[in-house]
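ARCHIVE CARD
CATEGORY: sequence design from structure
SOURCE FIELD: tokenized fold
FIELD CONTENT:
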């Protein structure tokens, strides 16, 4: 998966740990109602969306963060989510 340009996720890339869960067919979502794409799979399908309004917001992942292969990648994704919400 990789982060979307123009978001705090830009430049992030990570792989899934197949020993945690079978990610051959990951869930796919789409932004709606003013949300935006934050993360995409290598297939260009949407893997995470975000929405903000005033002081509220949400980041929704279509995958489990603990399924990412590397601890540093999990931390970077979590930090990007917090940065997105804090904008």
């Amino acid at each position: 998966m990789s982060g979307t340009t123009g978001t705090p996720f830009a430049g992030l890339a990570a792989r899934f740990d197949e020993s945690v869960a079978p990610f051959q067919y990951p869930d796919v979502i789409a932004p709606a109602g003013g949300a935006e794409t934050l993360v995409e799979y290598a297939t260009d399908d949407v893997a995470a969306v975000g929405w903000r309004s005033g002081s509220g917001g949400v980041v929704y992942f279509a995958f489990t963060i603990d399924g990412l292969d590397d601890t540093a990648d999990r931390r970077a994704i979590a930090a990007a989510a917090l940065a997105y919400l804090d904008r």
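CARD ANNOTATION: The longest strand covers residues 46-53. The chain has one domain: 2-85.
SHELF: design records, drawer C
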